[in-house]
Amino acid sequence: MAETESCDVIVIGAGLSGLRAAQLLARRHDVIVLEARDRVGGRALAHTFANGDSVDIGGQWVGPGQDRLYALIETMGMQTYPLWDHGDRLVHSRGRLGRYRGTIPKLAPHVLLNVHWMMTRFDAMAAQIDTLRPWDHPRAALWDSMTVAEWMRRHAVSRRACAVFAAGIGAVFAAEPHDVSLLHALFYARAGTSLDNLVSTTGGAQQDRVHGNMAGLADRVAQTLGPRVRLGEAARTIDWSGGVSVETGKRRYAARRAILAVPPSQAFRMRFTPDLPAGRAGLWMRMAPGACIKCVAQYETPFWRDRGLAGQAVAPELTVRVTFDNTEQGKTAGQLLGFIEGDEARRWSGRDPAERRAAVLDAFAACFGEQARHPVDYVDRDWTAEPFSRGCYAALMGPGVWTAYGRHLREPLGPVHIAGTEAATRYFGYFDGALEAAERAVAEVEAALEAS
Amino acid sequence: MAETESCDVIVIGAGLSGLRAAQLLARRHDVIVLEARDRVGGRALAHTFANGDSVDIGGQWVGPGQDRLYALIETMGMQTYPLWDHGDRLVHSRGRLGRYRGTIPKLAPHVLLNVHWMMTRFDAMAAQIDTLRPWDHPRAALWDSMTVAEWMRRHAVSRRACAVFAAGIGAVFAAEPHDVSLLHALFYARAGTSLDNLVSTTGGAQQDRVHGNMAGLADRVAQTLGPRVRLGEAARTIDWSGGVSVETGKRRYAARRAILAVPPSQAFRMRFTPDLPAGRAGLWMRMAPGACIKCVAQYETPFWRDRGLAGQAVAPELTVRVTFDNTEQGKTAGQLLGFIEGDEARRWSGRDPAERRAAVLDAFAACFGEQARHPVDYVDRDWTAEPFSRGCYAALMGPGVWTAYGRHLREPLGPVHIAGTEAATRYFGYFDGALEAAERAVAEVEAALEAS
Predict the structure, then answer these.
(1) B402 touches chain A (CB under 8 A)
(2) Where in chain B is the domain with CATH 1.10.405.10?
(3) pLDDT given for residue B78 in this prediction
(4) B269/A268 CB distance under 8 A
(5) What pLDDT does residue A101 have?
């Protein structure tokens, strides 16, 4: 391990953020990307079914306002297509199935009004947040001392209103309402325009998909980088005492600057020389991600469409709480997508795969009929079991974290600049945010390299 | 690094828990203790003043019910002495100073009654917790979905009652009420008998000190282990695929079993082969510790005693929220001890030491008069800045952690057994709990070694 390889900039992490940062830098600088896994893409990952169809079993969506992501998709020669969003939606509650249209399930009028009022009120508060400095809001201390669960308990008139709102929170954060600080939830909603936008399909954050998968986008960006990307090299030690030196267990790399594009809790695992300042360590050790198992069943056809169903269900009491018609445009085979989220994901993590599959198909059958119990193929992915992710979709802030530590989130650590979706101010937790953070980190690095 | 040293049991961490485990095992087994720091003691650490007096700037107390700790102190030939606890206490609030006796500051009767009622109600709930399985309580899901802050907001009749109760929570957890799940707080109180016991001096958890310091106790236990203790060897990689192999960057060690006696968030930083199961990683990455800066000013004499003061003050609005007369029995020089806790500690961490000292002495002066502004010596220690602690007194559970992950807390990880105060069922977060966890882990290891 005596050999040291030198370059201008080391990028740590070959998720979309790190890859995009490297791609931008590579135009003018000598860049090396270090990736712990044996693949690129980070939280973007595809699976190929037996029939050759493929599917994103990591992040997959792109929607209006995510201009950076649409542009990159286009630049890389890929096409988007809309999520299937026609027909009735389903709500499964208390063992009964109801059909509805629009974002909010069909419920008793007082429940419906209450959920609508909660959404409106939540988004009115979110609209006040400066995503660059959430801690500056006059009510930041109060909002950050509360969880979303506490806020819901104050404002929900019934258990059902609570359950429906919680299903929305679960879908957006892959977490329980008590996992998330109200201030963080407001910031997150604001960063993604509004909670309403984040739970919406057409016109919202779940509008479009990518032919060839989001993971394919990461692959294409990686291809432009060629041998600059080094797989299976987890950064273990980062010396930032003068320039940057990174040790991976295989080799040592030296550079003038580095971009750290990994989830915060993974950054916390690395050894820094000199040691991390207390505030940075305190932040990173408090940013555990949400919990999600993404489940996709493949069928001969999207049979639910024949019955006028959109393939979208909300089922707060089932293993799978939210479903989508995940069929790729132009393919014959249909796909149902379901998310196991939050505590339910934690319960199912590590259990027998066959049992998990059966529970997921039970839930699909409860919503879409017995036919759903017999897919031609099936895949699920427990992101909490991935050693270099330990959850998804993104890191969460529990109570107090933003106000006590938030100012360290995007601040460079000497010559180490921070990318990754958790350093975004727009679409934090989304691939679009990963690109925003990459651009900002690249701008910082280029300014620093020019100045020196 | 080719050389591998073999033994029966590797103990990782030379805090009191690891040292005690090694001491017990060393009677019959070949033990090696790996310690990341260049000293033993973990969260026990002493400072020597210019005049030769010394003081614990880590944990220091022992009180009734902590039988394991009293016994070890005696076995190691050390003596305890009572904290100075005579005279009036002070409460500093809204710029005014009040004198009182007993545990709860002198306040308006309705505030006093409310605080007393909150304490009583809290301890009545705590008494119902089975510390082996807090998640089994019928209300565990509800209590774990709340922070202590939410519970306080529901039960406090006034801001002052809130502030006084929060000062107690701050003193016990070195954290803000919103940092801590109600279920965790109830568990913690129950593990330490009651919240009333944990905030008490005479008759409670702050009753006694140790001549020669708690850090001296760790030193003496370490002396019984001699060269078995290896300093400056942080465990980086733990292979637990068959027996245990630990790599420290300097050497490789192999053993049949290991005891992991480090704070959970430090364990999360280590690389495990095979990878940690999701539940264990999920737990460890969610157990960030409290935040505390311990501050001690030394004076020619304990001058406050002449004025009939105990040296104990509660000051919710000052930098230092809680003070004690920390004078060692038999010494001439007086000591005032103050804690900067929770968000206040986070604010002061990393700031100019002289500024911090001035702020602490301001607080001491506000309570004990101008004389307190002029100590002969002063020391403080920011435990959030310690790379191998990153906080104190102990790891905290935020909302949801106990119910989603708690069952993994003490469960062996194959041949790796879990010690450390965070694995205790009695006095979790205290040195007595560190000894309990050590004894339990040693019993597990001995049973396993005999069986194999």
Answers:
(1) no
(2) 107-193
(3) 98
(4) yes
(5) 84
Which of A144, A279, A346 is nearest residue B282 as measured by Cβ atoms? A346
pLDDT band at B18 (very low <50, low <70, confident <90, very high): very high
pLDDT at A94: 85
Q: Can you read off the two tokens belonging to residue A219?
A: 């692959």
Q: Give the pLDDT of residue A108.
A: 83
pLDDT tens string B398-433 = 999 999 999 999 999 999 999 999 999 999 999 999
pTM (2 decimals)? Answer: 0.97
Q: DSSP letters along B234-261, please?
A: ---EEE-SSSEEEE-SS-EEEESEEEE-
Where in chain B are all domains bearing CATH 3.90.660.10? 46-64+80-85+204-211+290-385
pLDDT tens digits for A147-188?
999 999 999 988 888 988 999 999 999 999 999 999 999 999
Residue B96: count of CB within 10 angstroms of its CB: 7
Q: How far is B340 from chain A (nearest CA, A)?
A: 14
Quick: pLDDT tens for A197-255.
999 999 999 999 999 999 999 999 999 999 999 999 999 999 999 999 999 989 999 99
Nearest to B26 by CA among B217, B201, B226, B216: B226
What proportion of chain A, given as a percentage, has pLDDT over 90?
Answer: 92
* Distance between CA atoms of residues B265 and B281, nearest Å: 9
Mutation target among B1, B135, B148, B150 for the A interface, most CBs of A within 10 A: B150
Q: Which architecture, in CATH terms, is A46-64+80-85+204-211+290-385?
A: Alpha-Beta Complex (3.90)
- Substitution target from A285, A381, A403, A411 for chain B, most B beta carbons within 10 A: A285
* Contact with chain A for residue B134, Cβ under 8 A: no
Q: Which of B37, B135, B178 to mutate to test the interface with A (most CBs of A within 10 A)?
A: B178
In B324-362, which positions are buried (b, 16+ CB within 10 angstroms) versus exposed (e)? bbbbbeebebbbbbbbbbbbbbbebbeeeeeebbebbbe
A239 and chain B in contact, CB less than 8 A: no
CB atoms within 10 A of CB B178: 30
Specify the CATH number of the domain B5-42+214-288+396-451. 3.50.50.60
What is the overall mean pLDDT for chain B?
A: 96
The reported pLDDT for the residue numbered B125 is: 98
Q: Which residues contact A431 (CB under 8 A, 6 or more apart)?
A: A16, A44, A59, A62, A66, A69, A214, A421
pLDDT at A112: 86
Name every chain A residue with its beta carbon within 8 A of the beta carbon of B265: 268, 285
Task: Search chain A and give the residue with CA nearest B264.
Answer: A285
What 3 state SS string does A34-56 have?
ECCCCCCECCCCEEECCCCCEEE
- Give the tens place of pLDDT for each residue, A96-109: 999 988 777 777 88
CATH class assigned to B107-193: mainly alpha
**What b/e readout covers A322-359, taking b as 16+ CB neighbours within 10 angstroms?**
bbbbbbbeebebbbbbbbbbbbbbbebbeeeeeebbeb
B345 interface with A at CB cutoff 8 Å: no
* pLDDT in the model for residue B1: 52
Give the best residue of A250, A390, A397, A405 to mutate against chain B (max B CB count within 10 A): A390
Across A343-347, B159-163, B335-339, least confident range? B159-163
Q: Nearest by CB to A282, which of B146, B153, B346? A: B346
- Among B414, B395, B449, B434, residue whose Cα is nearest residue B19: B434
For residue A343, the chain B residues in CB contact (below 8 A) are: 400, 403-404
Q: Which residues of A touch B146 (CB under 8 A)?
A: 147, 149-150, 178
Question: Which one of A179, A391, A403 has the shortest CB-CB distance to B399?
Answer: A179
How many CB atoms are closer than 10 A to CB A420?
32
* Nearest-neighbour CA in chain A from B111: distance (Å): 22
